[in-house]
Each structure stands twice: as C-alpha cells, then as structure tokens.
User: Fold this.
Amino acid sequence: MTFSALGLSAEIVRAVSERGYTEPTPIQAQAIPVILKGGDLMGGAQTGTGKTAGFTLPLLQRLMTKPVTGKAPIRALVLTPTRELAAQVEESVREYGKYLPLRSMMMFGGVNINPQIKQLHGRVDILVATPGRLLDHLQQKTVDLSRVEILVLDEADRMLDMGFIRDIKRVLAVLPKQRQNLLFSATFSDEIKSLADGLLTNPALIEVARRNQANELIEQRVYPVDRERKRALLTHLIKEHNWFQVLVFTRTKHGANNLAEYLNKDGITAMAIHGNKSQAARTRALAEFKSGKLQVLCATDIAARGIDISELPHVVNYELPNVAEDYVHRIGRTGRAGSEGEASSLVCIDEKKLLHDIERLIKREIPVVQVPGFEPDPRIKAEPILNGQNRGQGGHGQGRGQPRSGHSGQPRTGGAPRTGAGGGKPAGGHGAGRGAAPVLHRSGGRGR
Assistant:
C-alpha cells in the first residue's frame, strides 16, 4: 500500500517521500482513512509505530479540503504533555505540509510568552501546545480557539500521569462542541477510558500492538551489580563495547546530573537533560546527541520524551523505574521502525521487586548477564528506595547514610513516536556471553 492510495494529496505524498517514507506503517494505514472520513478516533500505539504521521497527514489533508474565507482562524489543536514532543509534532506538521498554504505554531512554557503572542497575531492554522502555556494564553485572551475543527490529544496517558487532567478539561470547555476528536495513548487505563467516554463520539478504536508489550526487536538484558558499583559498570560497558548514542535513564534530575558529571570525568562525553534545564540547554544537548558528538545522554523519563532518533542503538536503565509500564516506554526509545536495539538494565538488590513487576508485565524473564568483576556481594542487604534514589548512587563524595538532595520521582512518561518505516542494523557488538550467565535471584514478592 502507498500513501497516495490512502487518499492523501500529491503535495502531502511528495513531502512524505522526501523524508524517505514510501509505505505507511500499520497505524498509519488504519488511522488515516478513519480520520479523513471525519470520525473520532481512539488510537493505542506503541512508541516508534509512526503515530505522529498517522494523525498529522490526514489532519493536513482535512484542512486543505475545507478552505476558509477571511482571516484564517486556528483550525486544529494538538495537545502534548511536554515541550520536546510539541516541538517534534510541530516539526512533522511543517515538514509534511511544506507544499501546502497552511501555517503551524508550537507553544510551550519555559520561554518568553511575548514572541508567542506576536506569532498569534499572524496566521496560525495548526497550533501544537502544552496545556499549561495554552492556559496562560487563554487567561490573557491572546489565543482564540473558538473555531477549532480538529482536536488531538497526543500521549493522553502521559498527560494524565503528569496531572494535566484539569488543564485539559479547562481547554475543552472553550472549544466548539462540534469538532473531530483524536485521542492517542500508549495504554488504556480506566482513567483514559473515562476521559475518552466524555470526549469521543462513536470513536473508531485502533490498537497496533498489544498493551504493554515490549518490542520484539529490542534485545533486553539485566546486569546484576551492587548499587555502589553501578557507575563503574556503566563506564565499563560503554568503553568495552564502544557504545555510542547511549540514552541512560535515571529516576531523578539530581541523579542525571551526577551521573553525567561522573562519566565526563571518566572520559565519556555526557550531558544531562531534565526539567530544570533551560530550553536552550535541552535543545543543545539533544542536537549534540543526535549528531553523535555526545556519546551519552542522561535523562529523566519526562525529559526523554522529545528524543526522536530513527535508529537509537542503546537504552540503559541505570535505575529501574518505580512503575513497570515506564520500562516499556523507556526501552521503546530503541528498536524503532523495524531497526534493532539494545536495552540494558543495571539492577541492584534494592530493585528486585521492581524487576519482578516488569517481568510480570511483559510476560517474560529478561536474560541475565553477569559481568566478571562486578558480581554482587551476597552480604549486602536490600534497602528502600527513598525519594526515587538508591542510597549510595548519587553524587560524588556523598557518604552512605547522608541525606540526599534532589527531587522525588519524576512524573511518568513514555517515548515519542517516529513516523514511517526505516531499515535498521543491529547495534554494536556485545562482549559478554549470555548462555552461561548465572541467574539473578528473583524476588517472589507480589506486584503492586
């Protein structure tokens, strides 16, 4: 099947082909015809499935087939949970609509509001926004949403997890009652279903991957290690296997900063990216990481949202997430659009129950690789994970038992999708053997 066969215009198909995509992904093949017909849609899609193009392409087509007279109002609104995802979606709108007379704008917090107000004075057909900054504009009466025809809630589960439900409802209250609604979510919790029931009218339901199923192209492994030796093991793995473009997840902003500092001192170029960083710093870190200039990016779950690389080879869980579903979102940053990837988790004794919960969720045991010289000390006892941090893993020179600064666990989030299909090659080689690896003693504790 081709994109033109789905009913998209020659101008849109041309823009898509210029980005190297020739055949639609499964969610694009299913979602585009539904959206073109004008119906509401509830889409469940794993990261990397091409979801962004799945709604931006038909959105552009719908707006083009219904031209407006007079001053063009904002006709489509896309709400995203983070500034990075807003930037990625708006870039897709611009790229796919570059041969169309439509104008788009992204709107998020953390930057001066005045340039946004100025841009709103011009033509904006499609607005991509985060809820908080959009509410700022609504309160200042600098944005008019009274003629919105299409609403997209992207990564709705993440927005709910981040506490945006009240903001979303305040935005919905000012939109026209008659409009097309598209809701996309990686998971369908009861809260998501409740939101959908109040928002969607006879929606088509599209799910292209079983819920919470890890991508089979991702090679997953667990490295048992003592909490105090995680940093040393990470350095060893990166250097031993010559890993590049390594996305490393920490639970806290404080942990991301300290880990990046440690890696740099050990000769590995690394930067941290999280909500406390300025937009300019985040943009620079992402650009250097994507170009390959930066070897490692240390990120919290929420900050990793905007990292959109077609063949990201390595994801490392330096610390396992507190919520099992977030593991699936994290490792979904690799193995995208048909390419292969590796997901490695450094697991200490404190995290055995978290590992058990993850394996129960994905319905498989993750292979264990024991690196010689990093065998866990059986005398070390498990300790509670306080404020999202394993004791002894954080900053330099902090003794065990000293209070640790930083933030309690990050809001849950997942991965931003990559559009279209892309060929891939396996990521760099592995040195550690897998067959003879001793089995990590697994917790028998009950899931949450």
User: Anything to note?
Assistant: Confidence is low (pLDDT under 50) at residues 391-448.
